[in-house]
From TrEMBL:
This is 2-C-methyl-D-erythritol 4-phosphate cytidylyltransferase. One of its GO terms (biological process) is isopentenyl diphosphate biosynthetic process, methylerythritol 4-phosphate pathway. It catalyses: 2-C-methyl-D-erythritol 4-phosphate + CTP + H(+) = 4-CDP-2-C-methyl-D-erythritol + diphosphate. The gene is ispD. The keyword Transmembrane helix does not apply. HAMAP family: IspD. SUPFAM superfamilies: NAD(P)-binding Rossmann-fold domains, Nucleotide-diphospho-sugar transferases. NCBIfam families: PRK00155.1-3. One of its GO terms (molecular function) is 2-C-methyl-D-erythritol 4-phosphate cytidylyltransferase activity. Pfam families: adh_short (PF00106), IspD (PF01128). Keywords: Isoprene biosynthesis, Nucleotidyltransferase, Transferase. InterPro entries: CDP-ribitol_syn (IPR012115), IspD (IPR001228), IspD/TarI (IPR034683), IspD/TarI_cytidylyltransf_bact (IPR050088), NAD(P)-bd_dom_sf (IPR036291), Nucleotide-diphossugar_trans (IPR029044), Sc_DH/Rdtase_CS (IPR020904), SDR_fam (IPR002347). Residues 482-492 have a biased composition (Low complexity). Pathway: Isoprenoid biosynthesis; isopentenyl diphosphate biosynthesis via DXP pathway; isopentenyl diphosphate from 1-deoxy-D-xylulose 5-phosphate: step 2/6.
């Protein structure tokens, strides 16, 4: 006898079964070719802040506890590139790296086939949005308990106009009802599959995003919108590369400080070599790191007779630290000199000293340090100043060498990534150090950053996983610092070039 499933007219409709997904899958859409950026490689492979854009993006979903699995849809011909990035970074949640389709919609269909049947949460995210936050990922997944489709958007700060084929305005929608869409876009698997099933029968089907497919072909389905963020930009145009790089710098500078116990856990047993460690920031960094258990070896011209521009002096310093502890985890270069004066009036000896200490020295230290840092997967930390962004009159060579160190940082971060060695650069604002006092005299206390604050920020970078970044260090609001008198007998060449900004 066949069971009758007919519902009586007055019967109460059954409540829908609660949503019980078996897993949550993040689909990283990396099919772009980089044409608008004018690149010869897909834009998701372009490096920002020392890593390919797609690696930054994958790291967010790898770290998100809400995500169980990651599938990458890569541009045609570049699947091996993405596979190498996944392998080198050790991303364990990535289960598949496959070729995407010719269009966004075709790529989504490929992703759905790769995921397979069953009830699954699916998040589609642009690979070239590397600054998506953990908060956005979490809220997308949480919203799927209530809604079957979820979008991410931010309010429009600009007035949006609608135009006709002659570029004449036909309408100006009310801005308060408008949002700028971002990703991820999240769905219950049954919903997005059904939307695409219905779209297959439409010969005029075209959509630029997956929520648009649901909106058009499942019009009765509510699509929940959660708040995105201004930082969650899509790297599409050349200016976006620079914006994203700066946003990573700001995020690094705003990283929360650890507790004393955590600093001790991170630094105890590590060996740090500081070139230029007698005064100013180098001295404060030495004392701070020792307080947390690191073995620190400071070298300078006055205390150890170490000239950073001499390869034999640098080699001897590194050998001393290695023989004492059997390892070198971090090499810090705070040595630098600031000589003021018009370039046309500067004597040859002064120019040679400035160029050799400020640039040849860091280059020499980098070359000599690599074999040691390879063993520990350590970090080289350099220092620039705000003058690297625009040369300053009367210290042109100083500004030029600081710009060179920024380029050196970014280049070495790329070169040394295969060795697991990180390279970063600190960019402090005007800092109260003996070198600055010697060059500029006494200045109002409230206008200068303390050397200790720069040392603390430097320590945070050393124990981070950052690489290829120029980290700005700025005074906290209301911070007061004491003027630093020049140390008796201190030579400018032993001081940190502490963010001179005239």
């Amino acid at each position: 006898m066949t069971q009758d499933h007919t519902t009586a007219p007055d019967a109460t409709p059954a409540s829908p079964a609660p949503w019980r997904p078996s897993r949550t899958v993040a689909v990283i859409l990396a099919g772009g070719t980089g044409i608008r950026l004018g690149l010869g490689i897909p834009k998701q492979l372009l490096k920002i802040a020392g890593k390919p854009i797609i690696e930054h993006t994958l790291a967010v979903f790898e770290a998100a506890p809400e995500i169980d699995e990651i599938i990458v849809l890569m541009a045609t011909g570049h699947v091996p590139d993405a596979q190498r990035i996944v392998a080198n970074a050790g991303f364990r949640k990535v289960t598949q790296v496959i070729e995407g389709g010719d269009t966004r919609n075709a790529t989504t269909r490929i992703a759905l086939d790769a995921i397979g049947e069953g009830d699954v949460n699916i998040l589609f995210h642009d690979a070239v949005r590397p600054l998506v936050s953990a908060r956005i990922v979490r809220e997308c997944v949480n919203a799927l308990w209530t809604y079957s489709a979820v979008d991410v958007a931010i309010p429009s700060a600009d007035t949006i106009i609608q135009v006709d084929e002659n570029d004449c305005i036909t309408d100006i929608p009310v801005r308060s009802t408008l949002r700028r869409g971002q990703t991820p876009q999240a769905f219950r698997s049954g919903t997005i599959r059904e939307a695409y099933r219905r779209a297959e029968g439409d010969p005029d089907f075209a959509a630029t995003d997956d929520c648009g497919v649901v909106l058009r072909y499942l019009p009765g389905t509510p699509i929940k919108v959660i708040d995105g963020s201004d930082e969650n930009i899509k790297v599409t145009h050349p200016v976006d590369v620079h914006l994203a790089d700066k946003l990573f710098q700001l995020a690094a500078a705003q990283a929360p400080r650890l507790t004393d116990r955590r600093y001790s856990e991170e630094l105890t047993g590590r060996t740090i070599v500081v070139f230029g460690g007698s005064y100013g920031i180098g001295h404060d960094l030495t004392e701070l790191a020792r307080r947390y258990g690191a073995q620190v070896f400071p070298f300078s011209r006055s205390t150890t007779g170490t000239h950073v521009e001499r390869a034999e002096d640098v080699a001897a310093a590194l050998k001393t630290a290695f023989e004492a502890t059997g390892r070198i985890d971090h090499v810090v270069v705070t040595a630098g000199i600031l000589e003021k004066g018009a370039l046309a009036e500067m004597d040859e000896e002064t120019m040679e000293r400035l160029l050799h200490v400020n640039f040849v020295g860091p280059v020499t230290i980098a070359r000599q340090s690599l074999p040691y840092l390879q063993q520990t997967k350590g970090q080289l930390l350099l220092y620039t100043s705000s003058s690297y962004t625009r040369g300053r009159a009367r210290y042109a060579l100083y500004s030029a060498t600081k710009a060179a160190l920024v380029n050196l940082t970014q280049a070495l971060a790329d070169e040394w990534a295969e060795f697991g060695v990180r390279v970063n650069c600190i960019n402090p604002e005007r800092t109260a150090t003996p070198m600055r006092t010697k060059a500029f005299g006494e200045e109002p206390e409230h206008t200068l950053l303390s050397a200790e604050a720069v040392a603390q920020a430097s320590l945070d970078v050393l124990i981070s996983e950052l690489t290829g970044q120029v980290i700005d260090v700025r005074r906290a609001p209301g911070e007061q610092v004491a003027a630093v008198p020049a140390q008796p007998g201190a030579q400018a060449s032993e001081q940190l070039s502490a963010g001179v900004d005239a």
